[in-house]
Amino acid sequence: MPKQFSSACERNSGPICALLQQILKNSAHVLEIGSGTGQHAVYFGAAMPHLTWHSSDLPQNHSSILAWQQEAHLPNVVAPLTLSVSEPNWPVGTFDAVFSANTCHIMAWNEVEAMFAGIGRLLPSGGLLCIYGPFNLEEGRFSSPSNAQFDAILRAQAAHMGIRNFAAVDALAAAQGLELQANYPMPAHNRLLVWRRT
Fold it and tell me: What is the dihedral of CA 17, 20, 22, 24, to 10 degrees?
């Protein structure tokens, strides 16, 4: 697969990065779950040279991630790891932060549960989890008409997809000893959620 391009990544990289630069200023190794095209990895890696950025995804997405990385030539952005959230054996490494964008509404709910369980096994005390995407802040109520339309599109594509309720996701985090630190409003009715391992 050649280098892939996501217009959503192109639009959201700047606003996300502006926050991550403050949130991750004391972090050293970040695991990105679901790196997709690979655009976020090189954008954030270039903006935060103090971090080592570890991208990860299913093997079929590695070629695009590698193409972005090879073009960028960033010493702090390393080759993608193979990660399927439902598999019990996650990549071995010392990560003090985890980032994931636009994954919770694509995965089946049992995969979201598995992702949080894996993050719980991986993050050390004080470690940070940052998740970006659309969420319902009130149970079952969409934060905007565009999010309601997006949810309908997702569910028409596959029954397991859909915008998640913030409370349900926060409960998964709490079960792993993660305490909510911030819930940032983002452009296009998205959120950046930040938890810390207590």
Answer: -140
Tens digit of each residue's pLDDT (9 = 90 or more) over 138-197: 877 899 999 999 999 999 999 999 999 999 999 999 999 999 999 999 999 999 999 999
- Residues 6+ positions from 167 with CB-CB distance below 8 Å: 139
* 70 SS3 class: helix
Domain of residue 151, CATH code: 3.40.50.150
| DSSP symbols for 79-94 | EEEE--TTSS-PPP--
> What is the distance between the alpha carbons of residues 116 and 118, in angstroms, rounded to a whole number?
5
Distance CA 175, CA 155 (A): 27
Joined together, the tokens standing for residue 101 give: 């964008």
pTM over 0.90? The answer is yes
Bridge partners, residue 194, by sequence: 130, 182
The answer to whether 192 and 16 have CB atoms below 8 angstroms apart is yes
**100 — phi, psi (to 5°)?**
-150, 135
Q: Are 86 and 111 in contact (CB under 8 A)?
A: yes
Q: Could you give the CA distance from residue 167 to residue 15 in angstroms, rounded to a whole number?
A: 24
The string of pLDDT tens digits covering residues 13-45 is: 999 999 999 999 999 999 999 999 999 999 999
Range of the domain at 88: 7-197
How many structural domains is the chain composed of?
Answer: 1
Residue 53, domain member (yes or no)? yes
